[in-house]
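Follow-up to my post from last week.
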Amino acid sequence: MAQVTEKIVNGVNVTGLFETIETIKEKPEVGKYNFRATNKWIGGTENHTTVNDFYGACKTFSRKKPHVFVKDEPESLLGTDKGANPVEYLLAGLAGCVTTSIVCHAAAKGIKIHSIESKLEGDIDLQGLFQIDENVNPGYRGINISFKIKADATEKELEELVEIAKKVSPVANTISRPTPINMSLEK
Amino acid sequence: MAQVTEKIVNGVNVTGLFETIETIKEKPEVGKYNFRATNKWIGGTENHTTVNDFYGACKTFSRKKPHVFVKDEPESLLGTDKGANPVEYLLAGLAGCVTTSIVCHAAAKGIKIHSIESKLEGDIDLQGLFQIDENVNPGYRGINISFKIKADATEKELEELVEIAKKVSPVANTISRPTPINMSLEK
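User reply:
Got it. Predicted complex:
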């Protein structure tokens, strides 16, 4: 029996990563994913989201256990702070996506990462949400992310990794491009 | 002493909501918020986000306890499924934001809501993330949300609530508008 040696860099299975990329190159339908969530209002500003199955690699995957998220508003925004609020969840998603993009691209290039920390922040003007001024965007005006990375790499290589992450991250592209949202009411 | 009677609809303090809106109308700087998160890479596709303080109503608020989020990828995407993945966090944020927008606008109109459930889904083509085809958007192509609402309201009123939520939700507007992301490397 031939022994398969897997190359692991930064905790990422680089052998598996390259195999996945090759498979999608040959059969693009393998790369077509569909992510899903269900949400339930609890009361006031509290609601819970459940994430379990998703479609990808031409089949549906179900997790052993679903992931559940509690969302609420802090007291100063009329809630009871049972969970972070929705605009903070968006920052969590963005932080995770660009970080994983950096880690995986570094792994693919053979760059060993020791640590990545980041800070995110963005301004929201509630005049938009409350329809006080129709010219005010209710969303984030912009989001700033600052990274602190320790790695066996030059500063130029790290800057390139951050640049690539911004270019390829699914969450970053969902936010930076005008992504259509379709909302409908079940009858 | 005068007794203050607070009007609560759908668990939302409508008296407080209207007071907040009036205050922001008089002093727009009260409505200027800044939301924040810090993120730490753990290993492989796992990273943790911490959300605690935020700025709003002209001061900085600190929570009693921070909210921490574990992000990971499922096994089929080279992770160990310790948490939902970043694109699923984005759905959780969107679900929460439009739900709270519906609940609060219904409360402001005096419409009693009994239940709100929603399903969200969106397609992502990994050819974008893996830079296999530069013409493929790495982000969600679009996101569909379907609501099931039970309320003391006509179908027309419910359709209007869904329409308003789409128009004013901060997360929905961050996604549907081209929101700039600025990424930098601390030196």
